[in-house]
# Entry
Amino acid sequence: MTPLTAGVTVPRDALLRLLVVLAIVLLPHVVHLPLWASGLVIVIVLWRGLAAVYEWPQLPRFARVLLALAGFAAVYASFGRVSGQSAGVTLLVVMVALKLTELRARRDQMVLVLLMYFLLITHFLFSQELWTVAYLMLCAVLITAVLVDANHPAAVLPLRRSLQFGGRLILMSLPLMLVIFVLFPRIPGPLWGLPADSGAARSGLSDSMEPGEISNLVESDAVAFRVRFDGAVPPNRERYWRGPVFGHFDGHRWDAVLHATVSAPPQVVADEGGVYVYEVTLEAQRSRWLFALDLPNADKLPDDARLDTDELLQSPREVRERRLYRVESRTHYRLLQPLDDAQRAFYTHLPVHSNPRTQALARQWRAQGLDDQAIVDAALQRFRKEPYFYTLHPPPLGRDSADEFLFDTRKGFCEHYAGSFSVLMRAAGIPARVVTGYQGGERNEIGDYYIVRQSDAHAWSEVWLGERGWVRVDPTAAVAPERIERGIGEALGERGELPGFMNPNRRGFLLRYALEARWDWLNAQWNHWVLGYGPELQQAFLRRFGLLDWSDMVLALTAAVTVIGGALGFWLLRKSRTPDVRDPALRLWQRAQQRLARAGLPPQTAEGPSDYAMRIAQARPELAVEITRIANLYLQLRYLKANDSRTERALAQAVAQLIV
# Structure
């Protein structure tokens, strides 16, 4: 940037275009910014636009400094830091907006253009969906159009022409982008690390469970994970996706098992049938759980995953980005785990004086001489025969949640039934725990895979029954069997409690479902081939072309970049060349002009042949006859369409005899 260009004031039209593009680039960040930051950005953008239209004076230097310090302090007060995903992006957005308060020269315009390119990258910290990429590609075209304007200080180009230039430059960059994406050696995980608030926000199941928690989660249609089976697909009643296991109960809330009380993982005995192999694409959730069909085969797990003592598949680190893994599971199994006295005491523990009516009912069953299996059956029979209701909106429960649910409200969701059933079992001396996860899944007919949403969240119980070990018991199936057999939509449809996105009676549901299925299929392909394009997929893909290791990939990348860059450079050179003149008359006239230009008599802008010849005759009278004759012959051939070969030969002879 030369000093002269740096001091040139930005034209009003170029400034207004920049403000509009900046607003479009910042728009998706509105949902991530604090309310004060969004308001500040809107006020500054509007003020700068009005200042350009009405030619208001620039803010004084001390005011700009105070605004910058206040913005920095406000970010720190909101987040307790100025680095990390949310705080860092907020600080960047605020400072970019404050840069507008001193925007005046072309240099400031160029700085803002480069900052807008950087802002595009920050959107991927919050979303990497297909729509995000499409939106940001549009933003890239708009920013490049503003960049084109910034490089034309003499005058603002027409808007259509700026957009054409911007779109053309982005299209020219796509081949190079695709080559680098395919061939550049991939490394596991993200390319950069961020502080603790990086990655997606915490979503899905919690590390504890209390009444109302899962029913609130069911209101969300967000995707938890997608599953593609190799061959056979288990029926809906067998699709239990195992998640966190809770063994500690304080009278109201269930918390994770204290693994110090468990000496060894249980022995798994697989029964015949029910073996399924599948691929899971898990959405980012900021927890270590890798959901798998209950129960994963310990011999065929993802490379870095393990089964803990509760048979929960776990990753060594939090899942902060979308993850693809393959699992084999058995749905017919037994968990044989002998319990010592300490473990039995842990899984039968209940707080003193909590839920007294529930404990009394369990003691009554035991006093009747019922064994463990009979007590389990009695509890399930109570749910089937007595007026219990499966509802998404149960009344709130107090401290003795099991008592209030079993004897008073009798209305609950899966966590109410699983939690109260487990309390009943413990009160009867039967070891019990609560398992949370997902149940079911919706098939996408377009892509032949299954979508498990947050609305499929579920809770069930496991009881320890002597020689059978841990046995899954789902009390929800006793009161609402259609929930397990056909999904939550069938269980709640007649009650009118379905969330809006599930309601088949809503107008346009079928059209929305068809469009949503296709959109989800597109997202699934995007997730697999682009976001999931890690080292394994890259190596498998490139082996088809004979590229076996990193050295081959680097060599192919270098060759491809060289070829594409060379072809692009050759094309640009050809575009910049003066086109060959095919008209003989024009070629002869330009030859005469070149001779006169070497003598210090070049043609002037917008000067016609007659005017040029007249100026030459006045400056050099001795050339008047020759230049006048040349101009007249040229005009006859060029404009009078006199296709006379004699006239053309005469013009060529006159130009040849022109001696300056």
